[in-house]
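Two quick folds needed for the group meeting slides. Do the first one here.
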Amino acid sequence: MKRQEALAVLQSMTTSESLLRHARTVELVMQAYARKLGEDAEKWALAGLLHDADYQAYPEQHPKVIVGLLREQGQEEIAQAIAAHYSKWGQPYNTLLAKALIACDELTGFVVACAQVRPQRLQGLEAKSVIKKLGQKSFAASVDREEVRIGAKLFKVDLQEHTSFIIQVLQEHEEELQLQAQTGM
């Protein structure tokens, strides 16, 4: 599957701007990690882009619809990673791709939430501030903090370094993601 096909699949099931941005941010982070680790950047990016593709259209079936579609197209490794991207689903983490996806999903969303409440957005955002905010349960309350910790442990990354990496990747795309500093404040 090529990115254009994956984007069409995503857009056929997702209209929410925030979900589309989340898909793009996770895609960018996954792609960057693949490059850093010498993995298949296109495959990792597609897993990030499509991991929540059916969430809006089929919330009760998520992620079964997108997983089924990917399996029909012979994309088993991506399908398995998406099937396992939440630890409470009880799916195995047989690949580095699956471990990376669970490590990047919730935390990337949390970093974006942290950036959105700052006038400088991503500029100057530091991992220690993000990690401190993780301790504030009322902030971005829908983010599963335990999932963030489980993901980092499975992926075998230090939480601070992992958070810094995500921030750096998103900073490189801040304009596209509309997360650049607010002017005139």
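Then this one, please, same format:
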Amino acid sequence: MRKLFALALLVFSSLSFSQSFPSRPVKIVVAFPPGGSTDITARLVAPKLAELWKQPVLVENKPGAGANIGTDYVAKSAPDGHTLLLATTAFAVSAAVYDKLPYDPQKDLAPVLFVSSIPNLLVVNPALPASTPQEFVQYARANPGKLSFSSPGPATGQRLAFELVKQAAGIDLLHVPYKGGAPAGQAVMAGEVQAMIVNLVEALPQIKSGRMKAIAVTTAKRSAMLPEVPTLAETVTPGLDVSVWQGLLAPAGTPKEAMARINRDVAAVLAQPDVRERLAGLGMDIAPGTGAEFEQFLRAEIAQWKKVAQGANIKAE
């Protein structure tokens, strides 16, 4: 009888929690300043969730320290589903390059669902005598150590992505870090450096104006926005697949019922035509799945970037 009572109590509690969540405003934390693609995604999804949940859904920007301030805030929040993190590639990069973090990336946060990905592009200064991946690799091999590439910082996803390309293609380029993506891009256009890896949407205006030349896409498949540009995987580095991704995380210990509802409702919002159209216009591929699938993806991402960081001797202070 006691076992039956305990089981009934557990079922009742689970149903009660599922029905009561959310019981107050929900906060989606973006670990970057307002205006970027992650912020846009959060602010597009938030009001749609508020309609479903009959509770306010607020977006709070907590930038700084390579996205670790916002991530740490969520990791230390109450595990009840009311505080969520819209994470990006920076989450896996931090786990790979920092010796010490104020949170444990694989223990203190629980993956809810993968949201989207944006292809990266390998771009070069138009004066560089290379227009295909094969020509770029051939030219770099013929001029070892003489070419350089820019990034928004020494321990960023863009820097690691280029290091991965270097390792996979067997080429040698000097890394030149800048303070942010805009000056890194300006350096390519001005000829201060010859190349960089940048997300497709940021590069498109410069490619169309002729100030940058697109060499290759870093994802396994070509981009619908630039179908004529080949992938690195199909040309010089088989198997390479790198993108800028977004995914939703909750504090570890958040009840499964809340996680399941968040997963289900966010996926439903992402399936709405106006949401898909808006995000597709930003170059995003919408691909929500299960929390288990996202967890598996994160483990692979962190392992990949750790290997790249070790090979390039990259460590964040």
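Slide caption for protein two: DSSP finds eleven helices and ten strands in the chain.
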